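RETRY 2/3 - previous attempt timed out on the joint model. Re-submitting the same 523-residue input unchanged.
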Amino acid sequence: MFRAHWWAAVAAVARQVGDLEVAEDAVQEACAAALAQWPADGLPESPRGWLIGAARHKALDRVRRERRRADKEAEAVREEAPSHEAGGWAAGTDDELALIFTCCHPALDPAARVGLTLRAVCGLTTAEIAAAFLVPEPTMAQRLVRAKRKIRQAGIAFKMPGPADLPDRLGAVLRVVYLVFTEGHLATRGDALIRGDLCDQAIRLARSLAALLPGEPEVTGLLALLLLTDARRDARLSPAGDLVLLAEQDRGRWDRAMIDEGEMLVERALRLGRPGPYQIQAAIAACHSGAATAADTDWREIALLYGELIRYEPSPMVAANRAVAVAMSEGPAAGLVILDTVSGDARLARWPQLYIARAELLRRLGRRAEAVAAYEAAVALEPPAAERAYLARRMREW
Amino acid sequence: MVKYLFLLYGTSETLPEPGTEEFARMRADWDAATGAMARAGVLIDCAPLQPPAAATTVRVRDGETLLTDGPAAEIKEHFGGYTLAECADLDEALKWAATLPVAHVGKVEVRPVVQVVAPAEQPAG
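RETRY 2/3 succeeded.
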């Protein structure tokens, strides 16, 4: 029940005391106090206001205590920072944006940005984040402490970036949300192929960001992309837990409400006339969700969209995906020509999807020995267990 | 306000010979970058350093002072100069660091300076 208020509470307190660690601890303590007090006294009129007020009190208490200790290393509270005391807790959304932009600051280690965001913005515990990324809890705790120390020592300010920096900085924020989602959608670690809790968390984040930044089409595009992708969650795994290819999924099990919302959002974003990589990926996802059967898929449109996407993300992965789309619209030989132009790229050498795509095209061309070699190359890269099972099945099916 | 020390790293190969046209251009680029910092009121001090060969490394162990000829760490890129600036926050410091010519051919490490209270200013007790 506190998670809905966590982001706003940490943001308000962090802005005031200028220290994320102090803010998180104070909000945590305020939640504990609420748990003890609310059942007896009844729910306060504004639970969020109550939490922020209590947390602020605890944070300022701690800062004063630490200052009295005259520890020369303890940094002073930023007293010049405007106090929200008079305006009450409703100071609001600027603080929330400032907090997430701080957690995703490009001067921080990329791995730490994800953890910091899940902790400070989403309110996950360190144990939950460690479990999500399958690292020991002390490792994650240390990573978070180090990142928070860097924010404090390096003088990373709790503020929204200026207009000139916004596109880059927003890109870093969206990247973190996207990483949380992909970690859940196609788990790179562990044996579970989909970790729904992380997908839900990422969608919640994207939804809040879209509400906070309604004029940014890439934010809307990211939310659309996540909804359209996650709508297929139930259909992506067979009852045995194997990965089901898009073409073989039971489309009746796709979540219609999520698809409708995603399609509506991607159209709204594109109408703003400022396309970007997330909007284009969402448009690609919409091509799939709009097809009643796999055979109805408009692969020509998808190939065109991947061609657009390459302009923003000139990566061999995007080129490989375009090759698959071309193969679907113009035939496997045409796709293989494009795929061969990127398959030598060192960045793809450890990407199982390249070998899977190659194997599928070779299979359709009847080049059996080469197809089997490509499947084996994919297996050798040790993809997640469920994907391995799919590959084994695929090789047996000859 | 926070003080930031920009540690300027480059290789000797990236430095043009004095007297050449490239050297003059580099000086002009430096003057433009540091001039802009000075006009913005963030520049405290800046200077190039003599080459690493002129360095002496000092260590005191068990009361004994050990001197070594040369820099503390043998690395390909050497610490060749510094800029000290006072900025509102890291974003501002990073922006200025990126304007220095060495950022384009070498690297700039931005390190926040710890504010140390001078002994005389320390409160008693």
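Chain A has 18 helices and no strands. Closing ticket.
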